[in-house]
Amino acid sequence: MLFLFYNNVHAVSTDKIFRLKTQSYKKIYTNNFFWRTWEKKEIDWIEERSGKLFAFEFKYAKPKKTNFIDFKKVYKEAVTKIITKDNYLDFLL
């Protein structure tokens, strides 16, 4: 997984594939989505499980600004988390 954050495009797709594998192995039953507005603001990965929403943004480094603010206006109860090179193993394992 050294190539995981080689570039931002590759990192996002690789993380999603590995997350699907983790969900399968751990028997985590979810509906998976992404979120995008007409203004092109987006959330990379959303999981709906047990009636709750969990939103994840994949960033190489901790960003100064995320789209969680706009997302939380609509989905107030959602749990949000930024996945970076420092914490991606917690997300995948």
Structural class: alpha+beta
Query: What is the domain tally?
Result: 1
Shape: globular
N-to-C SSE string, H for helix and E for strand:
HEEEHEH
The proportion of strand residues reads 25-35%
Structure in words:
By secondary structure, this protein is an alpha+beta fold. The chain has one domain. It contains three helices and four strands, in the order H-E-E-E-H-E-H. It has helices spanning 8-25, 68-74, 88-92, and strands spanning 31-36, 42-49, 52-58, 79-83. It has a four-stranded mixed sheet with strand order 1-2-3-4. It starts with 7 loop residues before the first helix and ends with a helix. Residues 1-7 have low confidence and may be disordered. It comes from Candidatus Roizmanbacteria bacterium CG07_land_8_20_14_0_80_34_15. This is DUF4143 domain-containing protein.
